[in-house]
Amino acid sequence: MTTLSLYRPPSRSTALTSPIHILDPQTIGQIAAGEIIERPLSVVKELVENAVDAGATRITVTLEEGGIALVEVVDDGSGIAPADLPLAVQRHATSKLALASDLESIDTLGFRGEGLASIAAVAQLEILSRESNAEIGARISAHAERAGRVEPSAAPVGTTVRARNLFANVPVRREYLRSASAEFNRISGWLSTFALAYPGITFSLHHGGKEVWVMPATVDMQARLAMVFGKSAAETLMPLSAEAARGMQGALTGYISSPGNDRPDRRMQLLFVNGRLLRSTLLAGAWTAGYATFAMIGRQPYGALFLTLPPEHVDPNVHPTKSDVRLRYGHQVFDSVKRAIVTTLRDHATQRFRDAVTVSPAPQSMDRSLAQLQSLFEHSPSETDEPETERSTLRVLAQLDNTFILAADGRALVLVDQHAAHERIAYERIVAAAQNHGPSEALLVPVTFELGPGESAVLDRALDILREGGLDIEHFGERTYRIAATPAGYRARPFDIGGFLGDLTEEPKQRDVRERIWASLACHSVTRAGERLDFSEMTTLVERLQLCENPMHCPHGRPTIVRMDSEAIQRLFKRI
Ligand code: ADP
Ligand code: MG
C-alpha cells in the first residue's frame, strides 16, 4: 500500500533492536483517519451527518478550493456543551453509542465517534458551538492528536465546524486529490442528493465566496424531487406502490421513473437506508429485475428508494466510508424492492392503457367491426354520433404499411405496432404457462431443423427454460432438433429459430436469463412488421393486448401503442 510511506519511520533504536514496534499515536491517528477521510467529500459527509443527528433545520456548507483549503459546516442543531468539546474531538468519543450491544440498534447517522477525531488528524479542526439555553458559546481547535483548550466565544445557537488545509500534513494523500473543481463537483453532487431524504432541512452550498445553490425546506416532496432530479425528470417519477413493504420487516417508500424515461447510467438510482445515502450492488440488481420488460436494454431507470430497516439488520460498518451497505436478510429486501417496482409499473401501465384505449367489454366479432367500419363512412356525421359508451369503443380501421394497426375510439386515433403488441401478448402467455406449468400443445407435424456447433451450444443451454415456457424442443440426432410442442394456444406460427439464437448470443447478460429467453422466443414467433393482417386478426390482437398486465410496452421496453388525441390533431391543423 502506498500509504506506508505516510508513516513516520521507526526511531533508530527500535529499528535496530526489533523490526516490530508500536506506532506512535499520531501515526495511528493518520492511519485510522485515512480509512474515513479520503477526500474533502468525506469531511463534508461526516460534518453534515453530525448536523442532521443534532436535529438541525438549516445546514450551510461553505468550501474553499473544492474543500481542500476549507470545509465549513454551520448548523442550528442542539449544540455541544463546552465541557463536551474536548471529548467530541477525541477518538471513539460519541454521545450516540454507549455499549457494544448498542451497535445493533443505531438510529443516528454517526456512531463511532471517529468523525471529528479523524478530521483533526488530517486537517486543522475548529469547532464553535452554543447550546440553545447557553448565554455564550465556546470554541476548541484540534490538530494531529493535539486539542487546544476550550475558550468562551460568541457563537450562534448550533454548531460551526471548520476543517482547514486538508492533508497538509500528509502530502501523499494531498497529491492523490483531484482538482478543486472535481472535488467540488463530488461534494455538490452528494449534498444535493442527500438532501432528498431531508426535505424539512434547508441545505445550501457556497464555494469561493459565492452561494452555489440553496434548497429551502419544504413539506412538498415533489418540490424537493424537482430540485434534485430536475423539473422534467421529476415529473415522470411515480410514487412507489403503497403496499410496497407488505410482508417486509421495515418500511419502503420511494419514487421511480415511468417506463420510457431513463438514463444511460445508474447514477440517479438513489438508495437511502435509514437516512443514509448508500450504494448497494444487491439492490441495484432489484432495479434491473423490476424493470426487466419495461426498460430498454442498456438504459437505466432513475428515482429514489427510502428503506427503513431495523438497525440491527443493517451493517453500515462494512466499509469505513460507509459507501456500500450489507443487509441482513438482503434477499428478502431485494424481493420486496423488486415486487414494489413491478407492482408500481404494472398499475401505471394498466392505467395508461385505460387512458389510451377503451375497448368495449364484450369482444367484437369481426362482422360487427366491419359493419361499424362501413357505417363510419356511409353515415352522415350526425348519424354516427353514437351514445357515449359506444363512442369510446376502439375500432380497428386499417392496417398501415402492413406494420401498424390504425384504430380510433371516437376521441383519438390509436396506432398499434403489430409486432410489439403481439410480442407482448406472446411473452405474457409464455410467462403464465411457465408459472402455472400450463399445458403444451404437441405439434401434429413436428418441425425439425439443424444448427451449426455454435448455435447448437446456445440452444442447448436454453432448452430447459424454453420447456418451462411451453416450447418443447428435442434433440433429434447430433445438432438436429425438432420442435415437439408449443405453448397451448400459441399455434405453430413460423418460428424464426435463427433470429432467436442470434438474440441469445448477442443480448447483454444483465437481464434475468429466463425473461431474456422468453422475450426472444416471443419476439421470433409472432407477427412481424410487413406482414399483412386481416381485420379479425387485428381485432383479436388489440383485444388480447388489453388483457395484458403491461399492455403499453413490448418485452424489450418499446411502446406498443401510440395515441393521438383530438388535441394533438388540432395542433397539426394549427387550430390551437
Ligand atoms: P459520531 O458522530 O460517530 O458520534 P463524531 O466524532 O462525528 O462521532 O462526533 C462526536 C460527538 O460530537 C457526537 O457524538 C456528538 O455528541 C458531538 N457532535 C458532533 N458534531 C455535532 C454537531 N454538529 N452538533 C451537535 N453535536 C455534535
Ligand atoms: Mg459523526
Account of the protein in words:
With 576 residues, the chain is an alpha+beta fold. 37% of the residues lie in helices and 22% in strands. It is built from 20 helices and 23 strands. Strands 1, 2, 3, 4, 5, 6, 7, 8 and 9 form a nine-stranded mixed β-sheet that branches. A five-stranded mixed β-sheet has the order 10-11-14-12-13, sandwiched between helices. Strand 4 (137-143) and strand 5 (146-147) form a beta hairpin. Helix 2 (25-36) crosses helix 5 (115-122). The protein is elongated and about 90 Å long. The N and C termini lie far apart (68 Å). The model is unreliable at 1-15 and 359-392 (pLDDT under 50).
Tell me the layout of helices and strands:
Elements: H1 12-17, H2 25-36, H3 40-53, E1 58-64, E2 70-75, H4 85-88, H5 115-122, E3 124-130, E4 137-143, E5 146-147, E6 151-153, E7 158-164, H6 171-176, H7 180-194, E8 202-207, E9 210-215, H8 221-229, H9 231-235, E10 237-239, E11 251-257, E12 269-273, E13 276-278, H10 281-290, E14 303-308, E15 314-315, E16 326-327, H11 330-356, H12 366-378, H13 381-384, H14 388-391, E17 395-400, E18 404-408, E19 412-417, H15 418-436, E20 440-450, H16 453-468, E21 472-475, E22 480-487, H17 497-506, H18 513-523, H19 535-546, E23 561-565, H20 566-572
Parallel strand pairs: 1-8, 12-14
Antiparallel strand pairs: 1-2, 2-7, 3-4, 3-7, 4-5, 4-6, 8-9, 10-11, 11-14, 12-13, 15-16, 17-18, 18-19, 19-23, 20-22, 21-22
Helix pairs in contact: 2-5, 3-7, 10-11, 15-18, 15-19, 17-18
Bound molecules: adenosine-5'-diphosphate and magnesium ion.
The site of adenosine-5'-diphosphate has 23 residues, from helix 3 and helix 5.
